[in-house]
Amino acid sequence: MAAAAPAAAWNFAPNEALLGLTAHSVRGALGRVKAGMVADGGGGGGARPVIPMGQGDPSLFPCFRTAPEAVDAVAGALRSGEHNCYSSCVGLEPARRSIAQHLSNDLPYELSPDDVYLTNGCAQAIEIICSVLARPGANILVPRPGYLFYEARAIFNGMEARYFDLLPEKDWEVDINGVQAIADKNTVAMVIVNPGNPCGNVYSYEHLAKVAETARNLGIFVITDEVYAHLTFGERKFVPMGVFAAVAPVFTLGSISKRWVVPGWRLGWIVTNDPNDVFQKTKVVDSIKSYLDISSDPPTFVQGAIPNLLKNTKDEFFNKTIKILRETADICWEKLKGINAITCPSKPEGSMFVMVKLDLTCLPDIKDDMDFCCRLAKEELVVLLPGCAVGYKNWLRITFAIDPSSLEDGLDRLRSFCLRHSKLTK
Ligand SMILES: *Cc1c(COP(=O)(O)O)cnc(C)c1O
């Protein structure tokens, strides 16, 4: 066979917009933070473990292991031999029915299985919603600091992302005036994350009512990311945004990833909370179905496990998780007070994260939040997320969902790092 003539060039050109989106991802930022880290560095004999306080995935720690009933549900679904097939586009009916019932417990009305669409984790729910809402010229309002996956998916779909502030001095409430100021005729929706990632806040009933009123006045939908639903350990209880769906229609996004501590199982949902049938009338429902026809589905056997997983998981499991999170949030709050160069505006009451502010004037040799995290990883083997990865420069996001003794160790190392690099002699 004759050797093919060398191609002068291949007809591929990288999509520069796509290459730029890695800057909008937690994984991209953590990759950069860890790049210079050499495991078991630090010298001095004893090997120090890496303390992972960057990503919110406590599944590695035995104290956060998922409920045995959840494992039984999946094992049972596999053994039944009934879930080796393709699923339907919207998801298996029994799973959708059980999720509808599960979520209706906290609502003033009943959801139907037809309101529930199963997705490959909450991440795919975000992808789908951003694709469904996108049209040329449209924009979507997202919180800052926030979960940048929304921006990335919006931008990738050709939508503009506009930022409204969360207010640190008001427990990270939405700056309602800011929302009104940036919305216009092309705004389709606003996003809230409750309980909050990255801030660890939990919104009150009154605040959510204000959000709903604002959305209604602006004629925009509310997307509520409730992937941390019920993971609260402070004064405030979780209130689902769906409670206010008669004021403004709500997309509720969720998954089993965080509450059951199984992010690898990839099962999430989009729920349309819409007692006035706005989504039906405006063809949102048709758009979601159409999108699902051209996307992949979550694994069928995990869908098959959902009814038993929801029905059988004991309160004991949830209470244990909450108890540990309350303890680690307390440790975090107390220890952070003793670290110069770092201030924490409010104590976390939900999710697994807290935002803290860096005072770079105390740290003359540190350039910014990314530099801080890279050097902390290198020198102390402690991984934190730089604020730039949540749209908040020179702040840090700390994950406290790790086992308590590792957390204490990690915060002590953070303290020595700050002291060592500090010009204060405290
Ligand atoms: C973790 C997380 C997700 C993604 O959840 P998966 O179910 O693992 O895809 C979505 N939104 C927020 C705010 C998260 O923290």
Automatic annotation (TrEMBL):
Residues 49-414 form the Aminotransferase class I/classII large domain. GO terms for molecular function: L-tyrosine-2-oxoglutarate transaminase activity; nicotianamine aminotransferase activity; pyridoxal phosphate binding. It is an enzyme of class 2 (transferase). Its EC number is 2.6.1.80. Keywords: Pyridoxal phosphate. Its cofactor is pyridoxal 5'-phosphate. InterPro entries: Aminotransferase_I/II_large, NHTrfase_class1_PyrdxlP-BS, PyrdxlP-dep_Trfase, PyrdxlP-dep_Trfase_major, PyrdxlP-dep_Trfase_small, TyrNic_aminoTrfase. The modification N6-(pyridoxal phosphate)lysine is found at residue 258. It catalyses: nicotianamine + 2-oxoglutarate = 3''-deamino-3''-oxonicotianamine + L-glutamate. It comes from the Eukaryota. GO terms for biological process: L-tyrosine catabolic process. NCBIfam families: tyr_nico_aTase (TIGR01265). Belongs to the class-I pyridoxal-phosphate-dependent aminotransferase family. This is nicotianamine aminotransferase.
